[in-house]
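hi! just following up on the protien thing from before. the input was this:
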Amino acid sequence: MLAITLRLMAMVMLSTMFMLVKLAGRSGVSAAEMVFWRQAMAVPLIAGGLLLTGRLPMLRTRRLGTHAARATTGTLGLVCNVTAAMLLPLPVGTTLGFTAPLFAVLITALVVRDIVGPWRWLAVVLGFLGVLVITRPDAPVQDLPLVGLAAGLGAGVIVAVVSFQIRDLARTEEPIACVFWFAFFGSLFAAVLLPFYGRAHEPQIWLLLVAVGVTGTLAQLLITAALRHGAVATVVVMDYTALIWATTYGYTVFGDAPPPSIWFGAPLIIAAGLVITWREHVLSKRISPTSALDESAIEESVLPSR
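and the predicted 3d structure came back as:
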């Protein structure tokens, strides 16, 4: 129950972060700037918390290069997520994030060359049928921005790739170290773009950017804590509650009613994710790249160390 509660709280924080991202985007803040502040805010928060509790040595690592590579991929995924949140209705962007397990199955079969059984292939087909229902290729282009749809699906692909990188890191690294070095290197990469996209803001906009960083960091820490107290197959199911919060925020904050297609497509994608999670549970994998997604799995994925 503790693990489930922590994961539910993580989804509230993550959904709140994307709502704030959309709000800041409508106030003129660029995606690149938001990615920087999302990452940069996490560095002092995590380091300060560990310093105060005497656990700073947990950040020690001999794999800075691997962390940097993971941060490169993860930051690109964060850019896609932020872009999708800015351009799409929140429920649509959130639902497209649920495609990460589908892409992870494809990577497992086509790149890793691992055996994928009929249940997971069925889930992939079911999930992408849901994607077709939501994106509606036959609908007018102006219905949903193509850039936003591409960013939402791109985030799913990248989070799937990141899950494999984290699976490797989790063998030697503390979970909190994975979160810290992702934020550290990610903020450095995003800082390169600040001279081109950063600008002065009103005080209320700065508060929005701080809130984006704080809620995003809290979401990752809660995800980490949930995975320490419960099995991946148990807690990952709670990720789908993010759709409830995204729908609520979309309607109450932005006055956006979910498009009708979401009510038909989302259940297909969620059902596919549940089938994949169930199969991973049956196969009793300790760390599974196809089910251990937070992220993000809407935004990021943090797995417990062995």
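The chain has 13 helices and no strands.
The chain has a mean pLDDT of 84.
cheers
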